[in-house]
Design goal:
This protein is mostly helical. The protein has one domain. The chain is 92% helix and 0% strand. The chain is built from 1 helix and no strands.
Length: 40
Amino acid sequence: MEKGEDSSVMVYLNGLGLCSIAYAMSLELDGLHEYEDASR
């Protein structure tokens, strides 16, 4: 692979990682809100 292709693949994988992390965090936040509502 050329360096240009290699770096674009890394950027793509990093983007996927950030998206999955943000998605997981949003799911956790939703769970916390539901937990707070249930504990009232």
